[in-house]
Amino acid sequence: MRSDGISSDVRASGSRATPTGPARSSLRFGYGTNGLADLRLDDALRLLADLGYDGVGLTLDHMHLDPLAPDLAARTRRVAHRLDALGLGVTVETGARYVLDPRRKHGPSLLDPDPGDRARRADLLLRAVRVAADLGAHAVHCFSGILPEGTDTDTAWKRLAETLTPVLDAAESAGVPLAVEPEPGHLLATLADFHHLRRILGDPEPLGLTLDIGHCQCLEPLSPADCLRAAAPWLRHVQIEDMRRGVHEHLPFGDGEIDFPPVLAALAATGYQGLTVVELPRHSHAGPHYAGHSLPFLRHAEQTAATASPHPAPALQQAAPPHGAPSTAPEGSSTP
Description:
The chain is α/β, with parallel strands linked by helices. The protein has helices at residues 8-13, 41-51, 72-86, 115-135, 153-174, 191-201, 213-219, 224-231, 260-270, 287-306; strands at residues 28-32, 55-59, 89-93, 140-142, 178-180, 207-212, 235-240, 242-244, 247-251, 275-278. It is built from 10 helices and 10 strands.
């Protein structure tokens, strides 16, 4: 069992409930391996288990379960055994920056003009679906990519739908939902864009949503809590971090503007059963530090939410950048 590996100082920190401690939370928190890129995967998984996380957001990348290296199935089985031994749930994420192209961040994308390039991205997603099925993951995460120069939006939406169709078929066969993430600066940047894609595709059963709480703060007209309520029927994966309005920069908790107790109360009220994964990809240089501090913050915010008064009526946020526009720190754009 996972608790066998938890040190006494971790237990004393309160980051994990002991048999005599508080009741188990309804929310399940994980941490993304893209924020632990300086650790070997086995070390990262052990760290998260010891800290008391419920699971991991596993980004398929050259340092963590490389999706393009030989013997993927055998390596996946070893990771599955390790996750089981540690008691960690998992979601599979596909946001590695340079896993397909050493020169283009997040390239090629599902929107590239070259059909061969689009096929390479689709192949990565198909591999991710197979990995997710073998790991028992609750979802596969993906995103659209930015609008290529010289491509009109109608053409881009058509490419996105056509390229995702075989991936959705594979996801349906595998019984693993594909959770598309609205990403600031991308073609599919907002909740409204997700619904546009859903309508184009005919609302297929395996198509779900990854909702990044920081992105809601950055770009959506509704507050993050209200975004969760609106997204509940399609919610398959959740990412979480702090962020400021109009600036796409993933921040440690407390460094941004988000009021987290109402957000976690709204998430719990949706009945969401998947992982809520801390997403700090630019903080790998101090990944163990931020992993150690993030879970107690979230648990405290959750406990605060449980004693708070009911949330008021939905409120609009202040104006954000134009629809889909990259911000001054465009983590989702093509710039490093």
